[in-house]
Design goal:
Layout lengths: L1 E5 L5 E6 L10 E11 L1 H7 L13 E2 L3 E9 L11 E4 L2 E2 L5 H4 L12 E3 L3 E2 L6 E5 L3 E4 L10 H21 L14 E5 L3 H12 L3 E6 L6 H8 L3 E4 L8 H5 L2 E6 L4 H7 L3 E9 L13 H10 L3 E4 L5 H18 L7 E6 L3 H5 L8 E5 L3 H4 L11 E2 L1
Parallel strand pairs: 8-9, 12-13, 12-15, 13-14, 15-16, 16-17, 18-19
Antiparallel strand pairs: 1-2, 1-4, 2-20, 3-5, 3-10, 3-19, 5-6, 6-11, 7-8
Helix pairs in contact: 3-4, 3-9
The protein binds beta-D-glucopyranose (BGC).
């Protein structure tokens, strides 16, 4: 079968041929890949950045935002059946720490976890994939068009949930559920897919959401945000450190830019006892200057919290499916418009390019035979150097 792979460290993607995976264990689930999303991590891998090939191999099959259809199950599988739509999760735990043993590899304590399509395990940009039932999440048929958003949404769900858990532990008893968000003022910084899906999860919980980016008000991201009742803030007109005086203090800042200098400026907008949750993963090593004493003073004197959040646990994947369902019921078609660019798998070079300010989510379509057809097959053909 065909797959798209990178040799970690090299800015070069290529078609490769791999044997079609087979189900061996009783809990194996085999899916035909229908579409796979592309995010900043894929682009980083394709540019020679953070990636690790499986042990004993040179190349890594990329892709971690999959959506597929079950074509075969082992004898012991009960939660999914042939024909079901399914997504597979990303991270596989070290199984040595207490978090991984408790099915929370997203909180792995050793750092020895693996991630499909990113770190040490082949990913999902391939015709077929096999994984264990415990890593499969069923997506109802009416969410077929948006199911590929489950992975980025699961990441946003975890961040939102972590913020809620932290805050409810610090507040008088009672505010322990989704209701904590009701009427809260939330600033989402960076309106890429994670930021917008975070905004969606927050709107579904009744929060007042402001979304900061540096694109024209009429472009795709602000329009999508406004479609779910959020307010766009053009960061070119309001500097991050002025956000507080312009918009009022924020109970929650959901950071999804991966721009460290912005992160520290944004803290000026955080309310007393507010929380800032970081999801962006910055590249590079360039140092930045921060007003350290002022920053720490404010964090302490105002009981503020700043936390990082990565990946997602099974519960966050389930929450992603539930919230996609709720969002489609509430806002309808606009939700699918988060997917702004679709490319047949054979056009992966074009898909990996940036598509300008009208890009939100780019996906590779694997569904039709035609979308996988390339002139010539095998390693080295249809390759892209970036
Ligand atoms: C993925 C996460 C992953 C993280 C770190 C992100 O792009 O969505 O699942 O844990 O990268 O590798």
């Amino acid at each position: 079968m065909k797959a798209i792979a990178v040799i970690p460290g090299q800015a070069h993607l290529q078609w490769i041929e791999r044997p079609e995976p087979v189900t061996g264990a009783a809990d194996d689930v085999k899916a035909r890949v229908l579409r796979v999303g592309i995010c900043g991590t894929d682009r980083e891998e394709a540019g020679g950045g953070r990636a690790l090939a499986p042990q004993g191999r040179q190349e890594l099959v990329i892709g971690h935002e999959m959506f597929g259809q079950v074509v075969e199950v082992g004898a012991g599988v009960t939660r999914v059946k042939c024909g079901d739509y399914v997504v597979f999760t990303v991270r596989r735990g070290c199984m040595r720490c207490v978090q991984c043993r408790a099915a929370r590899p997203d909180m792995c304590l050793t750092g020895q976890y693996l991630e499909r399509g990113i770190w040490g395990l082949d990913g999902y940009q391939a015709e077929y994939v096999v994984d264990r039932e415990e890593h499969a999440v069923r997506v109802p048929p009416h969410l077929e068009a948006v199911g590929v958003l489950c992975e980025p949404l699961s990441v946003a769900e975890k961040a939102v949930n972590e913020a809620m858990l932290m805050q409810s532990a610090r507040m008088p008893a009672g505010a322990v559920g989704r209701e904590w968000f009701s009427g809260r003022r939330c600033l989402v910084a960076g309106l890429g897919p994670i930021g917008l899906l975070g905004a969606m999860a927050l709107r579904l919980r009744g929060a007042e959401v402001y979304g900061l980016d540096v694109v024209d008000a009429g472009s795709a991201r602000p329009r999508w945000l406004e479609g779910i009742g959020g307010h766009y803030v053009d960061g070119r007109r309001i500097a991050a450190h002025e956000a507080s005086s312009a918009l009022g203090a924020m109970d929650l800042i959901f950071e999804a830019t991966g721009v460290p200098a912005l992160v520290f400026n944004l803290l000026d907008a955080l309310a007393r006892s507010g929380i800032c949750v970081l999801t962006g993963i910055p590249g590079g090593t360039r140092p930045i200057q921060v007003a350290g004493a002022e920053l720490v003073r404010r964090l302490v004197l105002s009981n503020q919290a700043m936390i990082g959040s990565v990946n997602a646990a099974p519960a966050h994947w389930e929450a992603a499916v539930e919230d996609l369902d709720a969002a489609v019921q509430r806002w309808g078609d606009p939700i699918v418009q988060l997917i702004t660019h679709r490319h047949p798998a054979r056009d992966f070079e074009a898909a990996l390019e940036h598509h300008g300010s009208d890009e939100i989510k780019v996906v590779l379509e694997w569904g039709d035979k035609d979308s996988r057809a390339v002139s010539g097959t095998g390693s080295g053909t249809g390759s892209a150097t970036r």
